[in-house]
């Protein structure tokens, strides 16, 4: 048994609603607190001195902090594309110089640019690139992260990407949640129709994902230049019959994806920058977690997800980085979330919950995201006296320490 502390403040985020708005006054703040850890889980939280005295005969290690620190749960980034090769800096420059998406694609840019670079990369090269991004995420306080495929767009290349993600898992202390995004876009070099491409994935990729346990999550990009509600229907129906969880890239540029997400009871609908009142109402009446990806807004210069309206309507709102080479190259969860907070007028409680227990719920993980008895002992600390400093400094304040399963990393 190990006791860690004393923390100036421990922000537990426990006993808060999964859906709807949150006020900062609802946050539980334990002052001069300690976290008692046993077998990688939180045994209890309370006054550091009281815990030390009451458990004196059982504590084997005391990790006593020598400076004021504030502790919060480890961050959960539930939407990333960090398994990729190449760069899209040319796209970024062209886009900001006024070129349209179509014009960039005609000049060799766009998603297929990343697809080509990722296909050319060896498994070893791709693993090294992915692991380096995982390490950076951990240093920024992210202890659980989802990682998508989707830059392979052939059966073999999608398997390659998911095997790379599988190879990374034992090489990091962070939790990695793989997702298959073979329905990212329709590959231009595919010799067949959209429906034939999706059928090939169903018949030749889905069984491999199951038999080799490469992932249990299926994603698709619902958008005019990707897939639509009609042609994706057999795809999601097949995925659900095989026991996969569903998540959806929805309403990024045009509405339509939210209806698909709700129809298939997806775990989450991600993006939502183009969502209107109809889509917000649909999400509020469902159990689908709405996911804001402010990094994509900052990368593309488009509208923010209507986070304030989603929360006020009663939705559960998660916030993720969307770290990817095209639209979300920054990859900094706290920076992008704090900017979303400013533009959407979100409380600190709403933003912190969106990066912790609400994000964990979107991954169907109930053992993390709050600091409470029996939860996974993933937490981070900052060298401040007040938790509000974390978002106030808009990502420039980095974690002092990161604990995963109660161990310092």
Structure notes:
The protein is built from 17 helices and 16 strands. With 409 residues, the protein is of the alpha/beta class. The chain folds into two domains: 2-74 and 370-408, Urease, subunit C, domain 1; 75-362, Alpha-Beta Barrel (TIM Barrel). Strands 1, 2, 3, 4, 5, 14, 15 and 16 form an eight-stranded mixed beta sheet that branches. Helix 5 packs across helix 6 (155-168) and helix 7 (194-204) packs parallel to helix 9. The protein starts with a strand and ends with a strand.
What is the CATH architecture descriptor of the largest domain?
A: Alpha-Beta Barrel
Proportion of beta-strand residues: 15-25%
Number of helices: 17
Question: Given this structure, which CATH class of the largest domain is correct?
Answer: Alpha Beta
The named CATH superfamily of the largest domain: Metal-dependent hydrolases
Radius of gyration (CA) equals: 21 Å
Main sheet specs: 8 strands, mixed
Uncertain segments of ≥5 residues (pLDDT<50)?
A: none
What is the count of structural domains? 2
Structural class by sheet pairing and helices:
alpha/beta
Mean pLDDT: 97
- The global form is globular
Q: Helicity level, as a percent range?
A: 25-40%
Q: What's a concise summary of this model?
A:
The protein is α/β, with parallel strands linked by helices and 409 residues long.
List the helices and strands and how they pair.
Layout: E1 2-11, E2 29-38, E3 41-47, H1 48-54, E4 61-64, E5 70-73, E6 75-77, H2 89-96, H3 101-106, H4 111-120, H5 123-139, E7 142-148, H6 155-168, E8 175-183, H7 194-204, H8 206-211, E9 217-221, H9 229-241, E10 245-250, H10 257-263, E11 268-271, H11 277-284, E12 289-292, H12 294-300, H13 307-312, E13 317-319, H14 333-344, H15 348-354, H16 357-362, E14 379-382, H17 389-392, E15 401-404, E16 407-408
Parallel strand pairs: 1-4, 1-5, 6-7, 7-8, 8-9, 9-10, 10-11, 11-12, 12-13
Antiparallel strand pairs: 1-2, 2-3, 5-14, 14-15, 15-16
Helix pairs in contact: 5-6, 7-9
